[in-house]
Amino acid sequence: MALIELNKVKKTYDLGEVQVHALRETNLHIDKGEYVALLGPSGSGKSTLMNTLGCLDRPTSGSYQLDGVEVASMSRNARARIRNEHIGFVFQNFNLLNRTSAEENVELPLLYGSSLTGRARRRRAREMLELVGLGERLDHHPGQLSGGQQQRVAIARSLVNDPSILMGDEPTGNLDSKTSKEVISLFKRLNEENGITVILVTHDLSVARHARRILVLRDGRIETDTESYDEAFKSLHAFEAE
Ligand SMILES: Nc1ncnc2c1ncn2[C@@H]1O[C@H](COP(=O)(O)OP(=O)(O)O)[C@@H](O)[C@H]1O
Ligand SMILES: [Mg+2]
């Protein structure tokens, strides 16, 4: 059984006069332990697919089984529960609380629905910050950290509930190429050493290069699904040449 299984999933936005086919009929399997990059031009449906996979959005039709459980028809609350259990999310702009220490930021998801004591929560937050190489920065506020360090705090926060999947929508979009590399190598390490399934949206080809599978989207469809970086690169540039 695949960890992620989409069957005939569609997402259509009905704007009255026009219908936007953000995701056309899509079938997709992703196994546990994969490292997948979603590439494609702006507006091709990357975020729509990611938000669907991340249970943030519900498809208009079709089936989405996450770890054998049908989530496409679930209520918002039920989806939130599934998300907390399975999925860690990181965003382009980090989404950290600014007046709060790194440790408290990481601890935050544990305040909802976790049975841990305050002490156990802090220990867990510290472990996660150590895992991302920020064990020395527990008391720093986001403003006292570099962009790359802030994204690593966000990654630590996304891992605190022990998710099996880590997802990011343009997680290096606000980072320079050097800090971007730090963050990419962290995703790679979490995938290879900790067995976490990684799914990233990116338009940075150096990010996609590290993935073991690349999906190229175009006009709401998965146009190319490949393990070859060169093939993905060609597919992406075929669009740009038009
Ligand atoms: N909430 C929305 N309402 C209407 N159209 C939307 C909405 N969100 C996305 N779209 C449209 O769906 C298409 C895919 O968008 P998106 O998934 O954000 O693409 P990408 O992330 O690849 O840039 C685009 O045409 C976009 O304008
Ligand atoms: Mg997007």
How would you describe this protein?
- It is a single chain.
- The protein is of the alpha/beta class.
- It has a single domain (4-240), classed as P-loop containing nucleotide triphosphate hydrolases (Rossmann fold, 3-Layer(aba) Sandwich), CATH 3.40.50.300.
- It has helices at 46-53, 76-86, 102-107, 118-131, 147-159, 177-194, 205-208, 229-240; strands at residues 4-14, 19-30, 35-39, 61-66, 69-70, 87-91, 165-169, 197-201, 213-218, 221-226.
- It has a six-stranded mixed sheet with strand order 6-7-8-3-9-10, with helices on both faces.
- A hairpin with a 2-residue loop joins strand 9 and strand 10.
- The protein is globular.
- The mean pLDDT is 93.
- Bound molecules: adenosine-5'-diphosphate (ADP) and magnesium ion (MG).
- Adenosine-5'-diphosphate is lined by residues 13, 15, 20, 22, 40, 42-48.
- Magnesium ion binds next to helix 1.
- Percentage of residues assigned to helices: 25-40%
If classified by CATH, what would the architecture be? 3-Layer(aba) Sandwich
Going across the major beta sheet, what is the strand order? 6-7-8-3-9-10
Count of alpha and pi helical runs = 8
Average pLDDT, to the nearest integer?
93
Unreliable sequence segments = none
Strand content: 25-35%
List SSEs in N-to-C order.
Answer: EEEHEEHEHHHEHEHEEH
Bound molecules: adenosine-5'-diphosphate, magnesium ion
CATH superfamily: P-loop containing nucleotide triphosphate hydrolases
Distance between the termini: 39 Å
Q: Structural class from helices and strands?
A: alpha/beta
Into how many domains do the coordinates divide?
A: 1
CATH class type: Alpha Beta
**CATH topology assignment:** Rossmann fold
